[in-house]
Fold this sequence. Notes:
Oligomer: homodimer
Shape of chain A: elongated
Low-confidence stretches of chain A: 214-230
Number of domains of chain A: 1
Order of helices and strands of chain A: HHHHHHH
Number of helices of chain A: 7
Amino acid sequence: MREIFKQEMQQLGDDLLKQGREAARSMEGAAESLKNANLALAEQVIDADKRIDALERNLDEMGISLLARQAPVAADLRTVVSALRISSTLERMGDLARHVAYVARGRYPERVNSGEVYDLLVEMAEHATIVGHRVAELLDSHDLELAERIEEEDSILDKLHQKSFSLILDEKQHMERQELIDTVLLARYMERYGDHGVSIARRITFLVTGIHAERNMSIGDVALGYEERQ
Amino acid sequence: MREIFKQEMQQLGDDLLKQGREAARSMEGAAESLKNANLALAEQVIDADKRIDALERNLDEMGISLLARQAPVAADLRTVVSALRISSTLERMGDLARHVAYVARGRYPERVNSGEVYDLLVEMAEHATIVGHRVAELLDSHDLELAERIEEEDSILDKLHQKSFSLILDEKQHMERQELIDTVLLARYMERYGDHGVSIARRITFLVTGIHAERNMSIGDVALGYEERQ
C-alpha cells in the first residue's frame, strides 16, 4: 500500500512538472510570436493550451483519488492539496500565455506595436518567460533560491507594468486605439503571469519550510497608480 | 466523531457562504462607486477585501484540518476539495471588485467615463453584481436554476465586453488616454468576475449532479475578436 502510495505521489509530481514545463513553453512561444509576428508559433501556443487544461483535469482526478484511497496526513496531505492548487495556477498561466498569443495572431502580419511600447512589451514577455522556466525548475528541484528569483522577476514585471501606463498616458506616443487596447491587455496578462508564478513559488516555499509568506498586496496593485492619482 | 465531522462540514459551508456574500457585496459597492463617483464606498470595498482574504485563509486551514483528521471519502471528500477551490475563486472575485473600486477612487471626483462608455460600464457592473448575488444564493441553496442564471449573466457580460472594444475602437468616441486604460481594465475585471462566477456555478453543479460541464473556451475569448481580426 505504502509503495503504491509513493508511486502515486511520484506520478503527481511528475505530471505537475510536465504541466509546469508546458506553461513555461507557452509563454516562451507567445513572447516569440509577439516579438517577431510569428503566426505559426502563436497558433501552436493557442493549441497547446488544451494540453495544459487536460493535465489539470488529470491531476485533479489523481489528487482526489489519492486523498480518497490513501487518506494522507501531515506533509503528504499538504503536498497533495498544494499540487491541486498549483495545477489550477499553472492552468491559468497557460491561459494568459494563450491570450498573449491571441493578440499576436490578431495583429498578424504586423507586430502589435512599435518603438518604445514594443520594446517594453518584448521586455515584459522575456521576464514572464523567465518566470515560467524558473517555476518549472522549482517544481523539479524545490530549490528555494529559484523562489527568490521568481519574486525578483515579478518585481521587474510590476515595474514594467507601471511603465506601460506612463507610456500609454504620454500623448506624445502616437498609438492607434487597437494598439492602446493591446498594450493595456498584454501588459496585464504578463504581469498576472508573474503574480501566478509568485503564488506557486510561495506555496512551494511553504511546503518546504512550513512558513507562509506574508500575504501582502501585490506591488502591481500599487503600481497601477490608482492610489496616488487624485 | 461523526457528529463533530458534521458540525465541521456545516462550519465550512457557513464560512464559504459568508465569503460569497462578502464577494457579492464588494462588487455591488464597487459598481455603485463607479456609477456615482462614491469615494467612501470605494474605500469600503478596498478595505473589505482583507476580510475576504482572511476568510479564504481560514477556510483553507479548516479544510485541510478536516481532511487530515477525518479523512472523508466520496461525496464528503469532493465537497471539502470543492470548498477549497470555491474559496480561492471567491478570493479572486473580491480582488476584481477591489480593482474596480481602485479605478473609481483614482478618478474621484470625476466619474471614470461619460456617455456611451459610462452607460456600458455601469451596465456591466450591474450584471457583475447580479452574478455575485446569485453565486452567494447558490452556495446557500444549491438550487441549480441559479447556476443557469449565472451562466446567462456571464453571457451578457461577454457580449458587453465585446461591445466595449467596439466603442473603444470607434474613433468618433472621444476618450482621453486615462479613460481608455480605465475602460479596457474595468471591462476586463467585470468580465473575469463573471467567468469566476460561472466556475463556481459549474463546480456546485458537479457536486450536486456528478456531471462535469464541458470545459469549453470562454465566449469571452472569442468575443475578444482576436480570432476574427486579420
